[in-house]
Amino acid sequence: MTLVVVVGGIPAAAAAQQETASVSFENQATGGTTVTVDSVTLPDGGFVTIHDASVTDGNVLGSVVGSSTYLDAGTHENVTVHLDEPVGESGTFVAMPHMDSDGDRVYSFVAANGEADGPYTADGSAVVDTAMVNASATVSMSDQPTTGDSVVVDRVELSQGGFVTIHDATVTEGAVFESIRGTSAYLPAGVHENVRVELDAPVTENTTLVPMAHMDTDGDEMYTFPESEGETDGPYTADGSAVVDTAMAMPSDTASVNYTAQATGGYSLVVDSAYLPDGGFVTIHDGTVTDGQVFESIRGTSAYLEPGLHRDVRVTLDSPLNETTTVVPMAHMDTDGDETYTFPESEGEADGPYTADGSAVVDSGNATVSASVDYTMKSSDGATVVVDRVELSEGGFVTIHDPSLSGGAVFDSVVGTSMYLPAGVHEDVEVTLDEPIRSSQVLTPMAHMDTNDNEAYDFVTSEGESDGPFTADGGAVVASAHTSVNAVVTAMDQSGDGTTVTVESVTLHDGGFVTVHDATVTEGQVFESVRGTSAYLEPGTHENVEITLDAPLEESGTIVPMAHMDTNGNEAYDFVTGEGENDGPYVAAGGAVVTTADYTVEGTMTDEPTETMTDEPTTEMTDESMETTSESSTDAPGFGLVAALVALVAAALVAVRRR
Fold it and tell me: CB of 371 within 8 A of CB of 391?
């Protein structure tokens, strides 16, 4: 069912152009990080955006909780939308198709104060659908061999934290407690992959197991469901049923190893899975092992692996591969029980290979010597991005591309590049972006060479003549993942009499404040370092925010502007008076969203003012009519555009409840 709501200010011609947009959004359960839009039609391409129900209270921009990647023109089904903040409570949500009015393939409606990427319309009204989203859990587990003592659950997503419990099939016959075979350790809210569960009641024959997601209802991080006889830590539910999956666990004494051909910098390889019934190692041999070079062919061995199934086993090589070659991962035992691989030095007397039907248990495939990049879903402060791992066969760089890369913008999509990285393995590579990004989006780190050996990234300036990407299988070596950006702060070095500070720009996706701390905040003086705070700022981007300090600066030094939320919704800054209970900082990548700047306290009020703050703002999302003080205003660009959504979205919610 498609509903429409009026959006003020949409030109009639634009409305006529967009009459064929539609969206379908059905009631569903979520583990907290994604929702699925059943169908969306976008005549000119764009996005489908998810709002929470606060849009009915006038929180038009701040109600945005996630948006899809860019979608080409046409109809798309089962669109997964990553949420910027996990959903911890069930409620009504609104799916709305949006245009890509600025053509950059990045959803910037909030950061641009509603002036870009507005909603599609039909007959002058925005196109929406609504659904009840149940904050719950998801769990998946594949059929697998087992020693009988443990199993591996592929993926668990929990909206509020809890456990994954392994039941046997008697749970379907009403043996709720007796069917329990084992339970994981406590798992925080979020996504967990390859969760090993030790079984209290071992599996001795092929058995159907039922992994079930359980809550931590008493908040003690201890699984007490059976001893409380179901009073605590019951299962997550969806549509009235427990959240479960089923899988066959098959006790086996036969080892196995699986390997997929891959690109590598030459320093390590990843084995997809290894099943070692008595524990042991995975050893990487090169192709000469098939010529009888049993010991000479060894290129590297994993750390000791406990008995059971292991996935994504990274093996560091003893010496780098210098050319593309066939590799042969082999499952090895730990025959002497010392958890140390001694096969070569013992000349095969210890830690020999597992065998099946008289042959060593192996797999084989190509290892293309080039580069590899690992990048997982994460948050960013908009100014920097951290790439999990980069492995380079030769020195080079890792470059961050934005979504316009998918539209062919090879050079314009570059938003930041690392420092020169020597050949080898680099973990947690921090890349400072050329300009802050102010909206959540899929970023694509790409491994680039240093073809002219000057240790400077020249790919863009040379128009691709130098420092092109590492390649494998005919394509660039990349990784892509959703990157959440909920707040960004920028400030320039400045001078004054110490009574005011000007923050160049601040983007707050949920509204809040920008607070000026002095440098003692880095020494743990969380509250004492607060010198002043802006008035409440609406969701969106605010520029040249002038803050009068409650505690003026008496000497020159570093200032630390910090983005703060309005967690209690009263539009008053209560962080200090509430001793941190309310209005805490926006957080990205595990830290507060901040910037730093030098502040020079001038000797007298008559000193010549600096021109620092008259420089052109670096952000692309500017508007001459934007407010330049800390006072919020509903007359700021974009707010009038979406104000008329409120009443009619509320009516849409009523209609959904009745259908």
Answer: yes
DSSP calls for 56-71? GGT-TTTTEEEEPPPB
Q: Could you give the CA distance from residue 154 to residue 174 in angstroms, rounded to a whole number?
A: 26
Q: How far is CA 480 from the centre of its chain?
A: 10
DSSP annotation of 187 reads B
DSSP string, 604-637: STTSPPPSGGGSPPS-S---TTS--SS---TTST
How many Å apart are CA 224 and CA 231, to the nearest integer?
Answer: 9
Q: Is-contact 33 86, C-beta < 8 A?
A: yes
Contact 131, 3 (CB under 8 A): no
* Cα-based distances in Å from 346 to 297, 301, 335: 15, 15, 11
Q: Six-digit token pair at 477?
A: 């070596």
In terms of DSSP bridges, do strands 494-496 and 597-601 run parallel, antiparallel, or are they unpaired?
parallel
State both tokens at 615.
């420089």
Task: Return the structure tokens found at 575.
Answer: 């962080």
Give per-residue burial for 72-83: e unless 16+ CB within 10 Å, then b: eeeebeebebbb
- Please give the pLDDT value at position 400: 98
Pick from 38, 166, 61: nearest CA to 109: 61
Q: Which residue carries 């969701």 as its tokens?
A: 539
The reported pLDDT for the residue numbered 654 is 40
Q: Do 48 and 97 touch, CB atoms closer than 8 A?
A: yes
DSSP string computed for 358-402: TEE-B--EEEEESEEEE--SEE--SSEEEEEEEEESSSEEEEEE-
Which pLDDT value is given to residue 19? 52
State both tokens at 396.
């080079």
User: For the sheet containing 256-258, what is the strand order?
Assistant: 256-258, 268-276, 308-316
- Tell me if residue 55 falls in helix, strand or coil: helix
Q: Are 157 and 138 in contact (CB under 8 A)?
A: yes
Show the low-confidence residues of the chain (pLDDT under 50): 1-18, 604-659
Per-residue exposure over 215-252, b if at least 16 CB sit within 10 Å of its own CB, e if not: bbeeeeeebebeeeeeebbbbbebeeebbbbebebebb
Write down the pLDDT at residue 434.
97
pTM of the model: 0.87
How far apart are alpha carbons 492 and 506 in whole angstroms? Answer: 12
DSSP β-bridge partners for residue 28: 133
Burial group, residue 253, by CB count within 10 angstroms (0-12, 13-18, 19+): exposed
Cβ atoms of 332 and 271 within 8 Å: the answer is no
Question: How much of the chain is helix, strand and coil, in % rounded to 5?
Answer: 10, 45, 50
End-to-end CA distance of the chain: 9
Res 278: pLDDT: 97
**Residue 371 near residue 393, CB atoms below 8 Å:** yes
Which pLDDT score is estimated for 436? 96
Count of CA atoms in the C-beta half-sphere (13 A) of 241 = 8
**Is-contact 360 463, C-beta < 8 A?**
no
d(CA 88, CA 365): 43
Burial of 3 from C-beta contacts in 10 A (0-12 / 13-18 / 19+): buried
- Using DSSP, state whether 77 is helix, strand or coil: strand
Q: How far apart are alpha carbons 119 and 101 in whole angstroms?
A: 10
Question: Residue 634: its pLDDT value, please?
Answer: 33
Contacts by 348-354, CB closer than 8 A, 24 or more apart = 348/294, 348/295, 351/280, 351/281, 353/283, 354/254, 354/255, 354/276, 354/277, 354/280
